[in-house]
Design brief:
single chain; 81 residues; alpha+beta; two-stranded antiparallel sheet; 17% strand; elongated
Length: 81
């Protein structure tokens, strides 16, 4: 999330840039975000711009499947000859 906000900085107007830069430097906001995520709540940052509001939302992901077990049954085995 922070990397994405940082990447958007060059295209922002003066006020939006200042708001985003202040948020990036706010260590208390980062601590709040981590606490919210650890409690299972999403964290959101909204940045008003001249073109409208941009919103970034981060959610905790505790488990990501590495492989779909259903695909294993239809994928040919590499050891089969």
């Amino acid at each position: 999330m922070r990397e994405s906000v940082r990447a958007a900085l060059p295209g922002l107007g003066r006020e939006s840039f200042a708001t985003a830069w202040a948020w990036l430097g706010d260590h208390r906001a980062a601590e709040v975000a981590v606490r919210e995520l650890r409690c299972g709540r999403p964290y959101e940052f909204t940045l008003p711009t001249d073109a409208g509001c941009w919103t970034w939302t981060t959610r905790l992901v505790s488990v990501l499947p590495l492989r779909d077990p259903c695909l294993a049954s239809i994928t040919p085995s590499l050891s089969a000859t």
